[in-house]
Amino acid sequence: MGRAVTWIVWITVGSEFLASVVANNGFGPGKQHWGYSGVRPRAYIFWWLHQAHTQRPETRPLIIWLQGGPGASSSGYGNFEEIGPLDRTLKPRENSWVKDYNVLFVDSPVGSGFSYVEDRSLLARNTTTVVSDLIAFLKHFYHTMSAITMNDWEGSVPLYIASESYGGRIAVEFAYALAHAVQGGTIRCNLRGLFLGSPWLSPVDSIAAWPQYLAGLGFVDEGGRERIERKVAAVRDTVRQSERPGLSMEGWHGLQQTIVQETGGINCYNVLKPSRKEIQPHDVESDEVLVYGETLWWYSDTGPPPPESHTSSNPLEQLMRGPVSHTLGIAATKRPPWGTQRTAVFDALGDDFLQSSVGTVQRLLNETDLELVVYSGQLDLIACLPGTRGWMDRLFAHSPASLSRPSRAASSRGTGRGTRIASRTTRFCGPGTWYRPTILPPCYTFCTVTLGGHR
Predict the structure, then answer these.
(1) Is the whole-model pTM more than 0.90?
(2) Which helix (H) or strand (E) holds 392?
(3) In the record, which residues are listed under signal peptide (predicted)?
(4) Which of 127, 151, 214, 370 is paired with 340 by a 20 to 30 Å CA distance?
(5) Nearest-CA neighbor of 75 among 103, 44, 42, 40?
(6) Shortest CA distance to 160 belongs to which of 175, 143, 173?
(7) How do the pLDDT tens digits run along the chain, 455 residues long?
(8) In the chain, what are the domains?
């Protein structure tokens, strides 16, 4: 895929001295830059920039892509499974976002993908740490790229933050902190808006919608619905009243097990895909099951995988730990292989996983002029559409008149439907799931139309 050219760039941010390994001539088509940024002592974020496939990429907006999980990898899942220039089989992706925009894949939180910590005690345990790491990274990225390209990435390039699932929660918290950092003069940034794909912003609303969602689609009978509802109520109570760390996650895993039992192992990322009982044993860890298993759903009744497994059990892992790692020059280092700290990332954020960030969405709307676009796939169970509608309807029912106005439909060229539900907020739903590429092309078109002026 081409020989990598590598620099060591030293940057001082405040009183902290950071090192980044930066390279280009990467894996696949187009101009690329990638590297590691030290965001805290012994904690490193990996980033991978694909510049727009246009004559003047410096004139195109920059989109930061944040994956879900927590623990899933932007450099892997987001890049090769969803929006990057190549798919997992290394075929060109027709609807790649890189055709029109600069896309920056960030493996966050530290420990996701190629990002890593040297000691597990350094993993983030709340969104506050995740966000502070991202801001430290972004400062470093801007300094690094400006030094390499001689372009003013901070001041002249519009920035959007795109995300899916749990990444949506990080996106809104990151955007809010970033907006205040800009106001406070601690960073220069041209932040314009957010794309939130099936966002895990109000977990209690999402899980509360599961029983009726599954019953309405015929996956459970009345008895199954009632048993799931009892588990949901237990989780809701522990989230609101928990005094013991880990209690909420115990309830979460219990809810997962109940749904697996009642549905025969439904594919929670696309309910029309084969259930667990329909999958052959040798396929349980294959691409279709674990590529989107952000929250280790498929292990909920068998236990998690061994913590430091370096073996590649599915095609994406084989690609990332093999050709990609070698081409980017990572394999030759002593850094952990791609994805080996993923389970630890989720475990570390367990007490934070079921908390809500709807209040931060409200503050973004009240205190900033950012544009928000929310995507939802109709076949996604985890952040199901009824749950998303629940918190959004409640949010705008209590919003100031300046934020709320009559809905109007917006076209997405025949494959989905968008509604402008407030002055700077658009909701889009499509006949698919955010975790599969089927919904991404119409969402991409829809976001381009909604945000306007940059394509």
Answers:
(1) no
(2) helix 385-397
(3) 1-23
(4) 127
(5) 103
(6) 175
(7) 544 444 444 444 333 334 444 555 789 999 999 999 999 999 999 999 999 999 888 889 999 999 998 999 999 999 999 999 999 999 999 989 999 999 999 999 999 999 999 999 999 999 999 999 999 999 999 999 888 888 899 988 999 999 999 999 999 999 999 999 999 999 999 999 999 999 999 999 999 999 999 999 999 999 999 999 999 999 999 888 766 667 788 899 899 999 989 998 888 888 887 665 554 444 444 433 333 334 444 443 334 444 555 555 689 999 999 999 999 999 888 899 999 999 999 999 998 999 999 999 999 999 999 999 888 888 889 999 999 999 998 988 866 544 444 444 444 444 445 555 445 555 555 544 444 444 444 455 545 544 455 54
(8) 1-204+285-454 (3.40.50.1820), 205-273 (no CATH)
